[in-house]
Amino acid sequence: MSHRIRRATSVVAMFAASTAAVTLGATESASAASFSASVATNGSIGTMWVDAIYDGQGGGGAYDTGYSWRSDGGLWNLNMSTYTETTPAGSLSVNGSPTIVRLELYPKPEPSQYFVPYDVWAGNVGGANVQRDKSRDGANWLDFGQIPLPTVGQDGAFRVEGGIVSATPVPDGRVQFDVFQIPCSYPETCPDTKRTSTGAAVGAFATGSSKGGRWSGGVGWPGHYIVFVRDTFTGSHVHGFMDIANGQVPDLDLDVACFGMRTCVYDQGSASVPQGGFHPLNPTRLLDTRTGVGINSGAMRPGDGRLGDPNPVNRRAETRNHEVKVTGVAGIPASGVSAVLLNVTAVAPPSWGFVSVAPRPPAVGDIFNDQATYSGFPSTSNLNLTGGETVPNLVLARVGAGGTIRFTYAGFGSMHVIADVAGWFDTGAPGVLQGGLGFTGVAPARLLDTRSGIGDKDRPLPVRRRPGIEGDRRRRCSGRRAVGGGQHHQRLAVEGRLRHRLPRWPGAAERLQPQRQRRADALEPRGGEGGGERHDPPGRVRDRHRPGGRRLRLLQRRRRGDHHDHAGARGRQPHRVGHGRQGVRTS
Predict the structure, then answer these.
(1) pLDDT tens digits for 390-401?
(2) Which of 69, 163, 227, 422 is deepest in the core (most CB within 10 A)?
């Protein structure tokens, strides 16, 4: 049997929309509840499976009962062991006293094949799903009326088909899916679901598996869908929301969070670790809260988009004030993107604080809870803020669910934010341009923080063989460092690793080598005559003697060319000494 929406009250309740008044009744008994339904077949044949929920409990396993329909609309009883027709159905019923009854209709190829799974790749008639809720649909809630089926060319129905993007091969059957059209939840808007003759909401429905690197929802209507996806290669199972229209069927991207859907829950597994090549772009603005680019609700407010206000309109507005979709815009592909390289600027913040840029995560728990994607706040920052000082920084950000990144702003008062994209990283999927620099993303993790004793400010900071970082000498970390507080504490957050060394300004290697040598000499224990290690207080200048009589004079390293006075500074952001595009050396 297919993976279906059953017995989970938080899910199935969304299928019950307000209904028109009905006139036909249905009777219930202690042993069985009778219901009435018919099918507008459009010449098709198929199976109508019945699923019942009792006081929000039960579910799982097989359907409770089933009926077949003939092309003339006649209904027959099915043997639930052999899935074969037995006798014409004089009445329809389900055992017990259910509180919700759900019907799922599968078109079939021929009467003798009622046990064959619904073939989403054949036929011009699609499946449908409809349910009735005793608590919402009144006394005659078990009268379903006549149920329409989506038919190509009728009432806006079309064949639903999209692509599958993956860095690994996608043979037939690798991806399995179940697709249910549902009404939009307030305050979202979408095409309304169709209605039965008694006013019950009915949506398109399909269950199947991939074919030739494609997926299909059979024949459906435009609207809002909940989609269950199972990648049999990785073992990941997710269910999430998708908006589908004729000519606008989203791809399933198996290498990114939520398979490309903006909101999903992982039923099994987790998002894969992205890796791929870097694609530079001419700097293009994709966020400017001053002009409504990316975020059109004005300056960014403190927080990360979560809101305790019970009003869903306010909650949705707050989320959209902190999230930006970065795929499919500014030269970035709509799929196959693992990370983006951004220049993020905080414009004249009203006070001290910080900004973190992170991927939008999958939801946890109830997918219909619009606050389910929020958990703890990020432990790392990308920009450290000082009141009135415009602060830029280069940010390498992983792309989250739905190609979206989330901004967390810790501070006081609203602040305008700008972001320009300088490039993006692919996932290594065929069909996406292969880049030059290789990248493997890891979750942001703090390697150095002298305030809490993480790392050691007086010794080299090893980054190889840390969680998520391999011990390849050729790979370099991409991170960010910020200075704040009177003692100039340093923080380093690693976001990923580059397989090759990034290009530097002309002559950089020659200028950096003496500095590296001096640091190595200062940190290397010296043995033999005159080679004893000496530890001096900060700021003192001493002579050290190396074996063989060589004499090296070490000075306390100081910053040059910085107009900031850091003495006693608190929460100061590192000042940009120069900009590479202006031909000025950067540090």
Answers:
(1) 999 999 999 999
(2) 69
3-state secondary structure 523-587: HCCCCCCCCCCCCCCCCCCCEEECCCCCEEECCCCCCCCCCCCCCCCCCCCCCCCCCHHHCCCCC
Write the burial class of residue 391 (CB in 10 Å: 0-12 exposed, 13-18 middle, 19+ buried).
buried
Q: How far apart are CA 373 and CA 70, in angstroms?
A: 45
419, burial (CB in 10 Å: exposed 0-12, middle 13-18, buried 19+): buried
Q: pLDDT tens digits, residue range 280-302?
A: 999 999 999 999 999 999 999 99
CA 363/CA 258 separation, integer angstroms: 9
The string of DSSP letters for 350-416 reads: SSSEEEEEEEPPPB-S-TT-TTTT--SPPS--SEEE-TT--EEEEEEEE--GGGEEEEEEESSS-BE
| Contact in structure between 53 and 102 (CB atoms under 8 Å) | yes
**519 pLDDT more than 60:** no
3-state helix, strand, coil in the chain (%, to 5): 10, 40, 55
Q: How far apart are CA 197 and CA 445, in angstroms?
A: 57
Residue closest to 217 by CA, chosen among 181, 191, 168, 190: 181
The per-residue pLDDT for range 343-389, each reduced to its tens digit, is 999 999 999 999 999 999 999 999 999 999 999 888 889 999 999 99
* pTM of the entire predicted model: 0.72
Under 8 Å between Cβ of 550 and 517: no
Q: What are phi and psi of 9, to 5 degrees?
A: -60, -40
Alpha-carbon distance values, 220 to 11, 16, 47, 452 (Å)? 20, 19, 17, 56
**By C-alpha distance, which of 165, 367, 409, 399 is closest to 266?**
367
